[in-house]
Amino acid sequence: MQQANRLNQILSIVGAYFSFCIATRVLWHSFQGFKSFILPSMWPRKFVQEYGSWAVITGCTRGIGLYYAKELAARNMNLLLIGRNTKKLKEIKQNFENQYGVTVEIVPDIDFSQNSTSIYGKIEKYLTDKDLGILVNNIGSILPYPMYFNEMSDEVLVSMIKTNIVATSLMTKLILPKMEEKGRGAVINIASVSGLSPQPLQTVYAATKAYVDFFSRGLRHEYGSKGITVQTICPSYVCTEMTSFSKNLSTPSLFVPSPEDFACSAVKTIGYTDYTTGFWSHALMLPFAYMPRLIMKMNERFRSEAQLSRR
Question: Is 205 a catalytic residue?
Answer without folding.
Answer: yes
